[in-house]
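Let us begin with a simple case.
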Amino acid sequence: MRIDIITIFPGMFAPVLNESIIKRAKSKGKVKINLYDLRDYTLDKHRKVDDRPFGGGSGMVMRPEPIFRAVEKIKSQSHKVRKQKIVLLCPQGERLTQKTAKRLAKNKHLILICGRYEGIDERVRQHLVSEEISIGDYVLTGGELPAMVLVDCLVRLIPGVLGDKNSLNFESFEGNLLEYPQYTRPAVFKRLRVPEILLSGDHKKIESWRKKEALKRTKQKRPDLLNERGVSNG
């Protein structure tokens, strides 16, 4: 997978892209991540990427020219992939879910545009962007943090990135269920004991217990997921 990120603050990404699973995925050649400073694609000496909104109003709006120029440059460098999916990170987008992440992870080339200020020129949405993604119903200073969240979410879905390929099958939100309770050594800590079933060695019983606990936890914490799954939460 190739992920290109267009931002006016490329320096924000280093701590995330150069640590943990993303760093390992890059070193293995599983993903290539490029950062593009939007100011490099402006035409004026002040490298201006924003301007006042037509019709009046508070704040500034991101100009279309540098964004189009940056995307055109990226496309010209990508000869192996004919079609790229261009994603705008913004509050108005589709809410990011595990299902959405799995769909996006099937793309070989993603271009992420980090929004800023009061918004982005509508011509970018209408004639350039493939889809818009939001990480929640709240407003952030810009699209950089959502882009980092999306990248982290996508990279771990790339085959061969995680050490245990089966771990993806037992995570929260798989099958619209939260993950079952997890325990590790010691078996007794401050007189608090691990459930005996997990020490039994009976894998069928353990699997059954985990399914029941996952359903119980989901009913308690995220009953809305059960509605989506078509299961009564009563």
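The second case is a distinct protein. As before, the sequence precedes its structure tokens.
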Amino acid sequence: MDNVQCRAPVRPVRDLPEFVPPARRRSEFVQEIFDHTASHYDTLSAALSFGTCRAYRRMALRRASLRPGMKMLDVATGTGLVARAALQLGLAADDIVGVDPSRGMLEQNQRRQAIPLVQGFGEALPFADETFDFISMGYALRHVEDLVALFSEYKRVLKKGGRVLVLEITRPASRVGTSLGRFYMCRVLPAITRIFTRTAETGKLLQFYWTTIEECVPPQTILESLEASGLKEVKRHTTGSLLSDYMACRLD
């Protein structure tokens, strides 16, 4: 852990002064914007994935070998979409713990399923060593401060043999794909969601969301950060040009 503390942080995204003033911490901005849009988040998620997100989460968890009887930690649980998929795969509600910094998201989560919830950050998990068999994180990796610190915490709270699954959206490799993604998320979706939600906050969230996708470090940096934390059997599974599943496990 000393080596982790002495090295420079591996930030997933550059500073974004167009969204976060230099005097303000990004974590505060992220927490606030998700607080304000929590009641609309499930609708936004469905619109982003054209309605396929729920089935995809179940498929990804199954592929990562999640099974009933495991103790699971859902980091950045939000409204509980990943936790809900785990419940549908047969995990007991008492065996799933959700952690998220946004109180608004946790309140929405609590209304949807009866799992234990904790307010906190992935880089400083409020749990004892070797507590969980499985850790999931759904589409929130771009919002953390330090990838290696995050993954080192994952290793700490995992039991030996425990597994990690990180779902993330990757910037398309082609210029055309990137342009289409930017247009859809920054122009089309904000206009549609503003009609239904009657708030400009959802549009701001979508623009921020796309910018973090476009500016995110390459997949190789994420894989190297998983390895630097001491996790093993690190690999990436891709679906189409956008979806990446990062998997790893604790062996020692």
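The chain has a mean pLDDT of 92. Residues 28-173+203-249 form a domain with the Rossmann fold fold (CATH 3.40.50.150).
Keep these points in mind for the review questions at the end of the chapter.
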